[in-house]
Amino acid sequence: MPMINPSTPKTSAAIHDIAFDNLSGAAEILRRAEGVFSLLRDESSRQAPISIEDAQVSIREASVALAKAQPDMSSLVRLASAALFAARAEATGGDALEAAASAARGFVESAANSAHAAAMNAVSLIREGSNVLTHSRSSTVLETLLEARREGTQFNVIATESRPMLEGRKLANELSSYGIHITVIADAAASLFIENVDFILVGADRITPDHLVNKVGTKMIALAARERGVPIYAVCDTSKFVGVDCFEGTIRDRRDPVELWPDAPEGVAVQNRYFEPIPLVFFSGFVTECGALSASEASACASEAYVDPGLVDLLRRQIR
Question: Looking at the domain assignment, is residue 147 inside a domain?
Answer without folding.
Answer: yes
